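Box 3.1. Reading complex inputs
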Amino acid sequence: MTSLYVHIPFCVRKCHYCDFNSGPHPRALMDRYVQALCKESERAGPITGGFQTVYIGGGTPTALNEGQLERLFNLVRDIIGSNHPKEYTIEANPGTLSPEKVRLMKAGGIDRVSLGVQSFSERGLELLGRIHRSLEAEEGFYMLREAGFSNINLDLIFGWPGQTLEEWGQDLQKVLRLGPEHVSAYCLTIEKGTPISKDVRTGRLTGSDEDLQHKMFKKALASFTGAGYKHYEISNFALKGGRATPDRVCLHNINYWNNGPYLGLGVGAFSYVNGRRYSNVKDVQKYIEKITSGKRAVSFTETLPSRRRAAETLVMALRMRSGIAEGEFHRRTGYSLMELYGPSIEKFRRLGLLSLTGGRLRLTQKGLFLANQVMVEFV
Ligand code: SF4
């Protein structure tokens, strides 16, 4: 399966916890960026066989104005041609949605929206530096529903400084009342150089302790699985399908977790094609200059040695609750799982972090929360 990712690096304002390649930019630069994306995309498509999934992420794609969004959807249409992907997602920030943008998204062929809610607590939204209020997130959700979107993801963050288990429980209840098809619930990581990390360092905020975050993780697990969602990846829950409908998993991310190929367009975007990984320059100005002067914007490229590909295949697959079967690992990498990682697997089995049953390796429930400790050993 091949996926297409398009990066929009613009945000209305930087959130206090964010270290992504994103931020506020002048409107004129946004115009030039969309033009540059169009030019970069001319080289990309149409691709034989087409893309099975398309994902427009950021940043905040919906920070673009209506005209820019329309151009963006047209450029994706030019790349995918008549092969409509199985899934076509856009990320949206509730503070930047409008009925007109939602209408354009629908007309542009988008069939899945990932709404960055993060929290329904006003205190939490303020602390995280989000541009929207709780009510706007709810209104954004209903705006999407009214426009006919039947595949919506809500992004949540838990474990922010000062958040109580009760507050997290209220967020979960709210999400369940709304009933999205998919939920991503991430434990806050305090990244160096962000305003939140400075506040924790100087004692203005007290970081959440790991025990509490673990309880929050377990609460999310119990709430979502109890309400008909399938916990299919460490932080992701999909509404279970019925006889005629599939589980509402995110196909685009599953391709990443399967270590599948993808093409990335835009500033800082990564691509992974035929075992070669490359990425574009991270600076918006430089990206625009390179592309508009007819050059490629690639600034980094590597061909992954087979051992490293095998390690990445394992680490990505372990993120999924289904893990990976020994036979599948061998088919995809050419290596024997136990020959490469036998002692480490054994160690984590003894610690109760990994299980190997019926030839299938996966993280245990305890291992899911401590996944990073396991992954580090394999890479
Ligand atoms: S909206 Fe998303 S990408 Fe933009 S600053 Fe906030 S967290 Fe970062």
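In summary: The mean pLDDT is 95.
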